[in-house]
Amino acid sequence: MQGKIGNKAFVDKTLNDNKLYAKKKFGQNFLTDQNILSNIIDAAKLDKDTLVIEIGPGLGALTERLCNASGFVLAYEIDSDLIPVLKNNLSEYNNFEIINKDILEVDINKDIDLYKKNYKNVTLVANLPYYITTPIILGLLSKTALIKKYIMMMQLEVADRICGKPKTKDYNALSIAVCYRAKATKCFNVPRSVFIPEPNVDSAVISLDLYDNPPFKAKNEELFFKLIREAFSQRRKTLVNNLVNVYKKDIIIEMLNHFNIKLSVRSEELSISDFVSFSDYLLDKE
Ligand code: SAM
After folding, report:
1. How far is the CA of 242 from the centre of ligand 1 (A)?
2. Does residue 156 share a domain with residue 33?
3. Are residues 108 and 31 in the same domain?
4. Which residue's CA lies nearest to atom 18 of ligand 1?
5. Please, what is the average pLDDT of the chain?
6. Whether residue 121 is found in the same domain as residue 226
7. Ligand 1 contact via 195 beta carbon (within 6 Å)
8. CB of 203 closer than 6 A to ligand 1?
9. How far is it, in rounded angstroms, from Cα 255 to Cα 233?
């Protein structure tokens, strides 16, 4: 079912009538294409047993479609100027709640617990504010295990990095940090022309499916995440030269010898399980 909000004429009129403008500081680019919205809804595989968490509902283009497709939508919007407009745009629906807060500041588990008793699944669906894509994703993945599936639109380059495989140019600390907890899949690309205002970059939608039984488990996750950050801090350097900032060189060499890995190895040649082994090895060597 198509919605009324996600189209160019409606977005232009709503902004004009309410003397609003798209705020750059909040990463506001409003979606104006019902086909893209339908593709997002299809990728999310929602039903009335699903509680949806949305970040940045904006004028409600995606929220409207989510209200139709799911049981309930809990949406976090930082911009208080948008709240009355959003509520007015969604006045036909009664299965949503807008929380006027910064998603980076909320106690997500507490909020989900308040709403989830009537629903079997919790899925996050969002057209993310691009300036904080990484902290949002890494923050939620580390803070909550209640969201089992994420369908998110983001800058194409970041989507490619998250889904990057070892030995490719896209593979980096972000791919590892995300894929440590979830299976990442690129769903489809989105051209910049479907937004008001048009951003300077193209976008893509990805899905993350949280592992029920994670294939990897570092003994100390804080150390694991610190290790991957350091390992990829300078791409042109070898692993040894990146890690000497935090570990003694002889310990790193001893570790690589222990795992039979050449001393000239670069981080992009290593798998998640290599980094888990390294972080377990380094546990009492800091
Ligand atoms: N969902 C709408 C759409 O698709 O048309 C708007 C998407 S726009 C790319 C990002 C939205 O996130 C904006 O509404 C913006 O105000 C909101 N936002 C930005 N930073 C936020 C934050 N820290 N917490 C919650 N919402 C935020």
Report:
1. 35
2. yes
3. yes
4. 56
5. 96
6. no
7. no
8. no
9. 19
